[in-house]
Amino acid sequence: MSNAFWPSRRAAALLAVAASVGLAACGGSSSVTGALLSGTISGLTADGLVLTSGGSNLAVAANSTAFTFTGRLTLGGTYAVSVKTQPTGLVCRVANATGTAVGDITNIAVTCAPAHSVGGSVTGLVASGLVLANGSDNVSVPANSTSFVFPAKVGEGSSYGVTVLTQPAGQTCTVANGASFVGQSDVTSVQVSCI
C-alpha cells in the first residue's frame, strides 16, 4: 500500500467519526435522557397562571387542560411544582406537586376554581393592634373599624378558618362564624366582637 493512500483513508475515517458526533449532537442517533415534567389542568378559565419548578417558569393560557415544562429533569433529581402567579379571578392548587424523577412525570394535577374574598363585621373595636388570620393570610384591623376583608381570595370549595392572631391593646376580641367552606360568593358572615 502506498504512503499516499494512508492520509486520505485516515481523513475519511475522521470524517465518519465527525459525522456520527454531529448526528448525536443533533439527536440523530443519541437517546434522550432525563424526565419530562407535565400534568393536567382543570377549571382554568382565565389567563395569568404561571407555574414554577426549580427556577423554571411556565405561563399557561386560559382553557388549557395540560402543561409540560420545557427541558428535562435529571433522573433521580427532585421536583416541586407550585403556582407562582394565580390567574385573574381564580385560585389554583397543585396536587402531586413534589417527588423524585425516576421517569417522565405525568400525574401532577392543577385544579382552579373561582376565587372569593373572606371577611365580615367588627363590633366594639376602639383600640389598635387587632390582627386576624386565615391560615397564613393576615389582616390588620384599625381601631373603630366595622368590617374587614382578607387580602388573599380563597377558591370555591376551599375551607377557611378565621382566628385572632393579635389582640388589640386593652381589649379582647372573639370570632363567631369563623370556619366553613367558600361557596359561590364572597364570605361576609364572619363576626368579630371586641370588649
Keywords, please?
195 residues, Immunoglobulin-like, 2 domains, five-stranded mixed sheet, four-stranded mixed sheet, 18 strands, 11% helix, signal
Give your account of this protein's structure.
The protein is mostly beta strands. It folds into 2 domains: 34-114, Immunoglobulin-like (Sandwich), CATH 2.60.40; 116-194. The protein has 1 helix and 18 strands. It has one helix spanning 5-25; strands at residues 37-42, 49-53, 56-60, 66-68, 78-80, 82-85, 90-95, 98-100, 105-116, 118-123, 130-134, 137-141, 147-149, 154-155, 159-166, 173-176, 179-181, 187-194. The strands form 5 sheets. Strands 1, 4, 7, 9 and 14 form a 5-stranded mixed sheet that branches. Strands 13-10-18-16 form a 4-stranded mixed sheet, with no helix packed on it. The protein has a 4-stranded antiparallel sheet with strand order 12-11-15-17, with no helix packed on it. A hairpin with a 2-residue loop joins strand 2 and strand 3 (56-60). The longest helix is centred in the N-terminal third of the chain and has 21 residues, at 5-25. The chain is elongated and about 65 Å long. The model is unreliable at 1-7 and 10-30 (pLDDT under 50).
